[in-house]
Amino acid sequence: MKKNIALLCLMFVVIQASAQFNLRGKILNYTGKENLVVNIPLVYGFHKENSISIPVAKNGTFNITLPTETQNFVSLIFQRQFYTLLITRNKNLTASINENNKNLELLSGTALLENKLLQKINIMENPAFMEEQAAHLYGGLNFTELNAKLIQPYLAKRDEKIDIITASKISLKNKKLIISEVKYLAYNYLNDFARTQLNNKPAIDSMIINLFDNSIIKPEVFPAGLQYYSFADNYLRYLETKAFLKIKKDNIKPTEPIPYYGISLDSANVVVKKYGKPYWRWVGSTKNFPEPVTEQYTYQQIINLYYDKDLRQIAALSEVFKKRFPQSKFNQEIDQKVNSLRQMLAQNESNTDIVVLKDYDKIQSVYDVIAKYKGKVVYLDVWGTWCGPCKEELKFMPQLKSAFTNKDVIFLYLDMDEEDRDAIWKEFIKVNGLTGVHFRKNRQTIAPLWKELLADNQDKAEYYPQYFIFDKEGKVAVSKALRPSDKEALYQQINSVLVH
């Protein structure tokens, strides 16, 4: 009996070990100065937390086994160059990268054909309309003009790629998967163009609605590729646009259900204010997506909130997720993530290095705060708990603070959140362990502080986040300073003020 159990265990280990993908090869002309990395998305999107460093020997050779349940589109990254690969369970690939010209050559392996095809069609090719000059060329056009000059020519190129895939010798399964990715990638690029390059709101709305009205929300293959889930994310934003245009057109009252969402505008405002946009997108996904899509998509949203260390939002979203999907394979991991954030909150409840100024509601001037730290350089972060880019920058704060340990630098945070988010703000800074000095203003009371901060700057834009450096005398030394993610460039900026 023991032998049988041992044999079963061994078979399980072998099966588990074989359910992987092997990537090996060599970096030609390798200098040893750059890292080789592979990023494997959980569901979709690029998140640095999903990156795996690939060990490279002195002679440039590498060999790594990558985890994959079925198939994943991944990014191989070397010297800021991204190469898209399709990794499949129980397959392998041998490749070489030339450090001199960044050329990736696919050499052999059971995954060779499909990855050669990805190279041939240049699957992630950046369209010309996403270049900087695009806004000048297309920004003022109406939808009819955009359709003729941009959309249809681009879709014709997309179809040429689909023809190449169809004629290839790869498996039918892989053909369907790659064709699906090419189709949804086209939606995503056109959506990004409309939202980032156009400066005409009616043209933006027309393009978005015409683009997605004819789209198919049910994935053509499942498990779907990462571009499908990016499309799903964009589709929810399209539904928002369409719903609110319909509210305006049909004069739908705030107490009546919003089209495509099934809840009233009043309820939607409460949901967004209390639990954030991810919860609102949960409502949209449950009303419009197939159940397996909602499960995968929301799982990624929950993990994003974990990386943002947003306990309030992740707790609310994970609760409804587990009620909807009580048997989900993701539930155990979700519980672990939520509990780890709760532990962080508990650990920082008494952290004396996190200082919330007393009577911060009575502070009338930034300089009243800066005056407390005369003789020290102050790095001011103007941010909000609702601001995605703000929270992304906070991830670089530990590295910034480490660079100025035992130096005369104070880290000051000015948060803009409304009064009903006061407790959420205080919880957020503790969960994130944001050591430094904090105070909060609302949209109205922060206005005079913005005027002070931007008084001597020609650029009066009050965007979030923004950063300012004050010298030891309490004067603004650098207005609109660099961000924490700028790393060394910012460190030099602060040091230049320190030495004067």
Please give a structural write-up.
It is a single chain. It is built from 18 helices and 14 strands. It has helices at 2-18, 112-121, 134-138, 143-167, 172-197, 201-213, 226-250, 265-275, 277-288, 291-307, 311-324, 331-348, 366-370, 388-394, 397-403, 422-431, 447-453, 488-498; strands spanning 20-28, 36-39, 51-54, 61-67, 71-78, 81-88, 92-98, 104-108, 354-356, 377-383, 409-416, 436-441, 466-470, 476-478. The strands form three sheets. Strands 9-12-11-10-13-14 form a six-stranded mixed sheet. Helix 4 runs antiparallel to helix 5, helix 5 packs antiparallel against helix 6 (201-213) and helix 12 crosses helix 16 (422-431). It is globular, with a radius of gyration of 26 Å.
List the helices and strands and how they pair.
Elements: H1 2-18, E1 20-28, E2 36-39, E3 51-54, E4 61-67, E5 71-78, E6 81-88, E7 92-98, E8 104-108, H2 112-121, H3 134-138, H4 143-167, H5 172-197, H6 201-213, H7 226-250, H8 265-275, H9 277-288, H10 291-307, H11 311-324, H12 331-348, E9 354-356, H13 366-370, E10 377-383, H14 388-394, H15 397-403, E11 409-416, H16 422-431, E12 436-441, H17 447-453, E13 466-470, E14 476-478, H18 488-498
Parallel strand pairs: 1-7, 9-12, 10-11, 11-12
Antiparallel strand pairs: 1-4, 2-3, 2-5, 5-6, 7-8, 10-13, 13-14
Helix pairs in contact: 4-5, 5-6, 5-7, 6-7, 8-9, 9-10, 10-11, 10-12, 11-12, 12-16
